[in-house]
Specification:
GO terms for molecular function: monooxygenase activity. By secondary structure, this protein is an alpha+beta fold. It is 48% helix and 11% strand. The strands form two sheets. The chain has a four-stranded mixed beta sheet with strand order 1-4-5-8, with helices on one face. The chain has a four-stranded antiparallel beta sheet with strand order 2-3-7-6, with no helix packed on it. It is globular. It starts with 13 loop residues before the first helix and ends in a 13-residue tail after the last helix.
Length: 405
């Protein structure tokens, strides 16, 4: 399936090799149907069940708690491989893995015990943070109100990626005093409705549409007060995008290599009787693979920075420094990876004829999916943030919000 040499993979790491042996057969099965799912808009329930069966969602859960205990470099390497199989799935699980990190970083032993058990058995967690319309930055119109020992939640969210497939939904809301709080709601509870109304031209299967809460029940133990301390969470979420982009690039590179390998027609003004013997065509294929290699190297480096931030949890000064370095490392990576992959999934068509634009081949999905991902947390701001730190020592922000100012 995947040309792992192009990823400069970690198969020489025995723990990674064991993890990969568990998951690669499932990744291969996912990739076999990826194009058909995209073209027929077949939602991801079945492939997510395959991943649930091997407890992919427990990758970062400690071994002692029933998980796989993967490091962040191991985790992101596997995420890149999954993205090469079907980037829709990685995007749909982004909120899940971000939630797992928040549990790992929590000082609440009860929360860890409760959630490690759920995650180890395969539960998925979706997200519901952004609000549509004129919602203001830093606040939520969605609100919880106390009802006896527990709470009720009312509100409307959009970009609720993955929640249609989830067992739980992690969301940010306001309490009765207007204070930002974090709650987790049972996806199948009364009063919770998830609508498949995402209409983006890319990542079509992520179910990134609307979630409605109408007096949805919230257990008191699932409420957490938001803390504004520095965190590696924003950098983590962004690196998931970069791993997904790298996987998209790898899948596209393999498809163009296969198309050139089997193409029998050639141009009279070309450089060989077949495309596979044309040096200019081979150069394009090589450049696409090189872009993927460069993108993956950045993901690997970003994962190392995040691992350092994770290991600094509980040591305030060291954690602040490590979080800052992770944020800056991945901000720099975002500007480069975005350009590399967007260029690669456009240039691959230069190695092929007009027949490659047939919708039957589905090669357009790589550009559409990559372009959609790059539009999240816009890269246009990242180089400025890095430059401001380099010149003025201005630290990066640790929480990105969208809404009216």
């Amino acid at each position: 399936m995947t040309a792992f040499w192009a990823l400069h993979s970690n198969d020489n790491d025995p723990q990674y090799a064991a993890l990969a042996e568990t998951f690669r057969p499932v990744f291969a099965r996912i990739r076999e149907g990826a194009q058909a799912r995209e073209q027929q808009r077949e939602l991801l329930f079945e492939p997510l069940q395959w991943l649930k069966a091997v407890r992919f969602g427990a990758l970062r859960v400690p071994v002692a708690a029933g998980g796989y205990g993967a490091s962040l470099p191991q985790f992101f390497a596997l995420l890149t491989e999954l993205s090469a199989a079907d980037s829709n799935i990685t995007q749909a699980l982004r909120g899940h893995f971000g939630f797992v990190e928040s549990v790992l970083a929590s000082a609440d032993a009860g929360k860890k015990s409760r959630w490690f058990a759920r995650l180890a058995q395969g539960d998925w967690v979706g997200n519901a943070w952004s609000e549509p319309g004129d919602a203001k930055q830093g606040t939520f119109t969605s609100q919880i109100v106390r009802e006896g020992e527990h709470y009720r939640l009312n509100g409307k969210k959009y970009y609720t990626t993955g929640s249609l497939y989830a067992d739980w939904i992690n969301t940010g809301v306001s309490d009765e005093q207007g204070v930002w709080v974090n709650v987790v709601v049972n996806r199948h509870a009364e009063g919770v409705t998830v609508e498949d109304d995402w209409d983006g031209f890319g990542q079509r299967l992520t179910a990134s549409g609307t979630t409605l809460f109408a007096d949805a029940p919230v257990q008191a133990e699932e409420l957490t007060r938001h803390e504004s301390a520095t965190s590696y969470d924003p950098a983590f979420y962004q690196l998931v995008h970069l791993a997904t982009l790298t996987g998209i690039g790898l899948a596209a590179a393999e498809d163009v290599a296969q198309a050139v390998r089997t193409r029998t027609r050639s141009y009279s003004h070309g450089n060989g009787p077949r495309a596979a013997q044309d040096p200019q065509i081979l150069q394009i294929v090589g450049e696409v693979y090189s872009a993927v290699y460069g993108a993956n190297a950045i993901v690997v480096q970003g994962a190392r920075a995040l691992q350092q931030a994770f290991e600094a949890i509980g040591h305030a000064e060291a954690a602040d420094r490590a979080n800052q370095q992770a944020e800056l490392a991945i901000a720099q990576g975002q500007t480069v990876v975005s350009a590399l992959i967007l260029d690669a999934v456009t240039r691959l068509f230069d190695a092929l004829g007009a027949s490659a634009t047939s919708s039957a081949h589905g090669l357009d999905r790589y550009w559409r999916n990559a372009r959609t991902l790059v539009s999240h947390n816009p890269r246009v701001y990242k180089a400025r943030i890095v430059g401001d730190f380099a010149v003025n020592g201005t630290p990066p922000g640790y929480q990105w919000r969208i809404g009216t100012a």
